[in-house]
């Protein structure tokens, strides 16, 4: 029997038109949830802290979490210029107090966490871009006496790779 414009219990033209639309809407909603679910780890892996440091979690550690202002840590790290990727420093088994002002502010943020990023855990590894304002700013570092030749030029953003080995 063909659909009628109205009728008790019978399917109407409006009902026929809305059934496929409702099914399509349900499929769209399911696809959106699937896509968002798939992207969530990627979004979580790359966070911009409130201070402008961009951190990519390479490996999430399973050990003790760093407590900034309290813990002394042992790390391996490398530092490169963001503009040229030229490596300017690296160290193995480097020890410092997190949040104690012993390293540039951006390095503290990578290890101790800040804003959108939690503190590192032992066994973890991160890559990060630290803006010049949280590194060596307008003064640069490793400059000669004239201030013209610097291993880290003034205003240079830095790329860090950090592996947390131990919390003391």
UniProtKB/TrEMBL annotation:
Biological source species: Ostreococcus lucimarinus (strain CCE9901)
Lineage of origin: Eukaryota, Viridiplantae, Chlorophyta, Mamiellophyceae, Mamiellales
EC primary class: isomerase
UniProt protein name: peptidylprolyl isomerase
Catalytic activity: [protein]-peptidylproline (omega=180) = [protein]-peptidylproline (omega=0)
Entry's EC annotation: 5.2.1.8
Alphabetized UniProt keyword annotations: Isomerase, Rotamase
Molecular function terms from GO: peptidyl-prolyl cis-trans isomerase activity
Any one annotated GO CC term: chloroplast
Occurrences of domain PPIase FKBP-type (ranges): 70-168
């Amino acid at each position: 029997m063909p659909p009628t414009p109205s009728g008790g219990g019978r399917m109407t033209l409006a009902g026929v038109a809305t059934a496929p639309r409702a099914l399509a809407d349900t499929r769209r909603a399911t696809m959106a949830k699937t896509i968002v679910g798939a992207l969530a780890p990627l979004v979580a892996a790359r966070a911009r802290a409130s201070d402008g440091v961009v951190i990519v979690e390479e490996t999430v550690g399973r050990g003790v979490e760093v407590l900034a202002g309290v813990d002394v840590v042992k790390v391996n790290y490398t530092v490169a210029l963001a503009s040229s990727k030229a490596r300017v420093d690296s160290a193995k088994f480097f020890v410092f107090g997190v949040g104690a002002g012993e390293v540039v502010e951006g390095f503290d943020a990578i290890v101790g966490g800040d804003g959108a990023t939690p503190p590192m855990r032992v066994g973890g590894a991160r890559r990060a871009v630290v803006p010049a304002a949280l590194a060596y700013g307008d003064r640069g570092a490793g400059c000669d006496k004239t201030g013209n030749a610097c291993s880290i030029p003034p205003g240079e953003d830095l790329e860090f790779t950090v592996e947390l080995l131990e919390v003391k």
